Amino acid sequence: MSDLKLQHLDKIYDNNVQAVFDFNLNVKDGEFIVLVGPSGCGKSTTLRMVAGLEDISAGNLIIDGKDVTQMPPKDRDIAMVFQNYALYGHMTVYENMAFSLMLRKENKNEIHQKVLAAAEILDLTSQLNKKPNQLSGGQRQRVAMGRAIVRTPKVFLFDEPLSNLDARLRGSTRREIMLLHKRLGATILYVTHDQTEALTLADRIVCMSMGHVQQIGTPLELYDTPANLFVASFIGLPPMNLFDAEIKNGQAVCDSFAVDLTAEEKELLSKYNGQTVTLGVRPENVAEGGNIKINVFSNENLGMNTLVNGTAGNHKITCKFRDWCTYKPGDTVNVSFNKRHFFDKNTTNAIR
Ligand code: ADP
To answer: What is the CATH number of domain 4-234?
Structure first.
């Protein structure tokens, strides 16, 4: 396996659309990197530049110390798994997995061993003689992965591999990809718009918006210390609640409530006295009991917890309470904010 360096990568398409701006990332050997962001933010373009399916407009791509920026895809030793599995319908599972190795004219016996080993890892041994249309969506996805595994590439690229699967299968296939990563120790670049996939799979997440990297860090770093409002809103579900708050007299004063600042927060916000900042609170950090009054408009029971939506003054707020709650529209509930985030309104950056 291998390390990967993406250095100052830009992508400008022929129609002058710049899809990626100055992308920088060092991927360590065996690391699982997830590129996440909304549709159109440049994730696939970045992945396709690594694969060699798109030219790199500026910057350098280094794999294992070798500059491959100008190298054609077939020489880069990279395997890509797409969201539509693109299996050959007339071939068996075995033939689908063996195909790229046969094209390379590898030894038949070695091909056989590689296919059997990949099938074993992916729990496909009993499916090898079937055609793709005899398989479930999850099994087809595994065959697509098998085709990548047999090539023992330096880097695996995944482009939204789970987006065609139903919710239950998405969960189980996600766990399979996790296990696969552990077993193979593979270097993986994985693209998704789904923050849950990013949080659950990644060693490190790269969060993108409009072609720009917003933050690179572990899942916990992005969740706990988002660099700016974009990351704060994108990572975490339901998204973070955001309020305008004026910092004065040791409080963050919103339109209908005020939050007493801790000594640490006062210190952090000392430069912002008399100014308005953005106060962020994750739904799971809103606790029942306190001096903030919420007018409830809906109560969604999720089993383990309940989402209670309401308004606090002019602001909508979502609370995620533990247990089974039975609030009704029109009820009021008093809450407090356990963990608070603060952002500069002008730059949108976290105040640190
Ligand atoms: P994502 O994978 O995050 O959904 P993409 O990388 O596919 O985003 O696209 C990023 C931007 O580049 C979008 O604005 C998209 O419209 C544009 N784009 C993608 N492919 C092309 C292309 N072949 N020609 C011109 N613009 C493109």
So the answer is: 3.40.50.300
